[in-house]
Amino acid sequence: MKIRPLPPMNSLIVFEAAARHLSFTKAADELNVTQGAISRQIRHLEEYLGKELFIRANRNISLTPTGLQYYQTIYSALLEVSQATAEIKKWQGEHQVTVVTTNAMAALWLLPKVATFQQNEGVDLRILTTENILDLHKMDCDLALFYSKAPPANMKVTPLFPEEVFPVCSPHYLAQFQGEITPDKIFGKSLLSLDESQKDWINWAEWFALVGYPMFKPKNRVNINNYPLLIQAAINGQGIALAWGSLVDDYLKSGALVRPVETVLRTQANFCMLEPTDRGVIPSSVKQFRNWLLEQLPGQVGQKGLG
Question: Tell me, what DSSP letter sits at residue 189?
Fold first, then answer.
């Protein structure tokens, strides 16, 4: 049976990049085309679907509800195609390191640091993402980076950094509050929430209870099932999000995000590096990447070196 309807394939690649970056300019840079070419492909796809995918406001763009739903589906589909293609091409060998992690750790923590590792010529880095830590048993990887309260069996666990959870918002969003900034003002307007399917992450109800706050009921709530997109929504001034320390450090340092209250929740959980215990001889490229990874931690926490 013929698969139909199928959208223009080139437009899907462009749409995924533009939606991931929330920027036509960054998508153009990534795909090595002009910004005009990105705009034309997006318009072509929108005309084919008969729906607007982006809200265009001056030089800023954001996803429409239809665009967000479509992006989540397209991202998963393209990821599966990428993984299947990689398996066929057999990305294996002494000079390759395969890392499995979540979208959040990949986009917010690992990828911003990778440029320094790429100075090590001759090592190919392959990054795969999944939101379910239980997928690790069926994914061939050298290392995995995950937040987890209960890491899976048959994995060596090296804590990277502890879980610290606190609210963040954009400076512009915070500036709208007049007079004394109190928790009822901050949390009573618009909360950005991670979708309930992400059960391993602390939600607002749990955070309020654990820090001793009352259960605030916001006037508006936006639910998103992709953490990098949730943080981007906070940067765009759409509300307050729960942030995990180390994942948003760069945004706090740049001033793109601020902490409206100083309250922070510290738990016993950690973001961890997981290593399969049945890998046999560990290639030198994996040892090199592992040591580099631990050097990226504050105070170089962790066990450096594998011999």
Answer: S
**86-118 burial, b if ≥16 CB within 10 A, otherwise e?**
eeeeeeeeeebbbbbbbbbbbbbbbeeeeeebe
**In terms of pLDDT, which residue wins out, 274 or 151?**
274
Return the structure tokens found at 62.
């954001």
- Residue 87: its pLDDT value, please? 64
Rounded to 10 degrees, the C-alpha dihedral 295/112/264/206 comes to -110
User: Is the pLDDT assigned to residue 89 strictly greater than 60?
Assistant: no
- Cα angle for residues 11, 74, 72 (degrees, 5° grid): 130
Q: Which domains does the chain have, with CATH numbers?
A: 9-90 (1.10.10.10), 96-161+269-296 (3.40.190.10), 163-267 (3.40.190.10)
pLDDT at 151: 73
CA 37 – CA 28 distance, rounded (Å): 8
Calculate Rg over the CA atoms of the chain: 21
